Amino acid sequence: MASPKPRCSSFATTSRTHMRPSGGTIDDSFLTETKNTQNRKLSQKRKTLSCQFSIGDQLSPWPTYTSDQTILHNRKPCSYDYRKRAGSWLKQPLGITKPRYLEQLENYLRKELLLLDLSTDSTQELRLQVSKLRKNLAEEYLRYLSERDARKILIADLNELRYQREDMSLAQSPGIWGEDPVKLTLALKMARQDLTRTQMELNTMKANFGDVVPRRDFEMQEKTNKELQEQLDSLRGDYEEVCKEHEILLQLHMTTLKERDQFHSELQEIQRTSTPRPDWSKCEDVVAGGPDRWQMLAEGKNSDQLVDVLLEEIGEGLLREKDFFPGLGYGEAIPPFLRFDGLVENKKPTKKDVINLLKDAWKQRLVEEQKEKFPDFFFSFLEHRFGPGEAMAWAYTIFENIKLFRSNEVMSQFYAVLMGKRSESVYIKQKETVAQLLKEMTNADSQNEGLITMENLSTVLKSTFPFKKEEKILELMEAGGWHPNSSNADLINYRSLFIEDEEGQSMPFVQKLWEQYVDEKDEYLQELKQELGLELHDEVTLPKVREALMNIDPSLDKQTLNGYLSGAFQVPRTELPEKGEEKEDGIVVQLKIALERLQMTDIRRMGSREQEPAS
Q1: Residue 78 DSSP symbol
Q2: How far apart, in Å, are the Cα atoms of 540 and each of 21, 551, 576, 585, 596?
Q3: 550 near 544, Cβ under 8 Å?
Q4: Which 8-state DSSP code applies to residue 366?
Q5: Partners of 590 in the beta sheet?
Q6: Are 140 and 6 a contacting pair, CB within 8 Å?
Q7: 174-213 pLDDT tens trace
């Protein structure tokens, strides 16, 4: 049995044939004609279906003849019993008449049943085919619905396009009547789409960048901000510099206040105990050599120093009058080179002879290994120079001279070392420093003329003394002949800075260098005392002094530090405990004594306080 064709296909075909690809619209007459055609086809189908169940032009009067008919009840038309009975019905005599339409229907059904042959295996296959057709019918129905909706939409779009064309035809000027309406419509549609898209982009831009400033304004603000930041950094740096200067000024102010109070106290004491200033010109006629020699002796000296000079002149006269010195005996308090009983001859050398003898002693001391103590070395030097019999007489003679002439640099330093008031390392270090300065200035004299500029002198001083303050460097330059009004290109005879007079006195440059060394040592020890935070009568331990030294001078190396500790506590370096190994009840000494011992040694700063400690 052939499957029936879906009814929606004719409608789809009809709808497709009535579409105009040119984009025109469908008028009302065309839609009416289409509708009438569909109605005629539907009436023809109904007539055909009705004709399939009637044969001939006459209608049967059935079911009026139902008395003589046998109606099958509860019988399956496809069973064998049904076919047997149907065969028996066919053989019945024709006396029983049936309605013609019923007979035709039964014949038609019988033929169809025989063709189907439901008793065979193909029955199930046919049933699956009456299911596939239903599925196809449903799909075609859905397709029909889609086609119908698409047709409605298409008709609406076509009508819209027609209306738009009419509107455009009315709005167009006479000059553009020749334009293609479809082209204009499409252009209008694209323009509207572009407008919509542009509006959306505009809204998006407003939403995303509504609070964003223009790049030009941003760059201008960024430039302004950078300039302000640079100004802020500069002002911050200036502020920090001003703060540092303020702190320095505060410290200077406090120092000045202390000095003022000290000077005020001294002034009051001087005013209380002062006497009229002496007229030192009266000494011109008393001192040997007259006014000229007195002027030389008194030049650059204050009253206290002039008193020493006057006492030296008086003492020198008395010393020359003595022929013998009384021996001091053999007591433990007597220096070894003066232990003698009886009278000792006064050799009465000149001041210049004593100075030359002391210089020779220093030269020999510097070339030796310095195994013995300095007093023992001094007596050995005299024995070697004058013989064992005359050594004691020369020892007393030189001792009395150097004790008297305190204003002489050579004699005063030798006396301090000989009596144990100063370590000989101080004198040795001072001579090494002077020699180093002379060497550096000689290297700066490229022409070997003995002349260098003031600028070269400043450079040499700063490289040799990197931790000296600027005012200290200026003091040395002034002592060397520099004046504030002079030029840095001025030449100076640097060799003249290191010569000595006939009495062994150094030039002002070397004297100023020595004075600065003494002042710097005092400042260093005062800073150590402040770091310890103790009074002079308090006791201090070795670890405490070690820690304080490392705090005020972090650049101290281990060897130098041990030398300072050995001098302060009078302990050999080999017996000093290592850091962290000191006992709680270890070496203890009074702070005053420790500072006095350090004052005797060569102690100086090795670096600035802000530097990292050396390994």
Answers
A1: T
A2: 117, 16, 16, 11, 14
A3: no
A4: H
A5: 539
A6: yes
A7: 555 556 788 888 899 999 999 999 999 988 888 888 777 7
Task: Give yes or no for residue 613 having a pLDDT over 60.
Answer: no
Other CB atoms within a 10 A radius of the CB of residue 86 amount to: 17
3-state secondary structure of 559: helix
- Tokens in use for 420? 């144990």
**Secondary structure (3-state) at 537:** coil
Helix axes 388-404, 409-418, angle to 10 degrees: 120
SS3 326: strand
CB-based burial, 340-353: b 16+ in 10 Å, e otherwise: beeebebeeeebee
Give dist(CA 246, CA 285) in Å, integer: 55
Please give the torsion angle defined by the CA atoms of residues 219, 221, 223 and 224, in that order, rounded to the nearest 10 degrees: 170
Contacts of 101 (CB under 8 A, 6+ apart): 53, 54, 55, 59, 60, 62
**Range 228-246 average pLDDT:** 93
pLDDT digits (tens, 9 = 90+) for 313-341: 788 888 888 899 999 999 888 998 999 99
Instruction: Please give the model's pTM, rounded to 2 decimal places.
Output: 0.52
Of 603, 521, 592, 517, nearest in space to 565 by CA? 603
Contact of 399 with 349, CB cutoff 8 Å: no
State the DSSP code for 419: T
Paired tokens of 553 = 């001078």
pLDDT tens, residue by residue, 31-69: 455 455 555 554 554 444 444 444 444 444 444 444 444
Helices (H), 53-121: 80-91, 100-116
**How far apart, in whole angstroms, are the C-alpha atoms of residue 524 and residue 520?**
6
Q: Give burial (CB, 10 Å; 0-12/13-18/19+) of 567.
A: buried
Triad 165, 168, 170: Cα angle to 5°: 110
CB burial of residue 168 (10 Å; 0-12, 13-18, 19+):
middle
Q: Using only the alpha carbons of the chain, give its radius of gyration.
A: 68
Strand-pair partners of 340: 329
The 3-state DSSP class for residue 452 equals strand
One-letter identity of residue 420: G
DSSP letter for 181, please.
Answer: H
Is residue 401 within 8 A of residue 349, CB to CB? The reply is yes
Q: Which range has the top average pLDDT, 298-302, 338-342, 607-611? A: 338-342
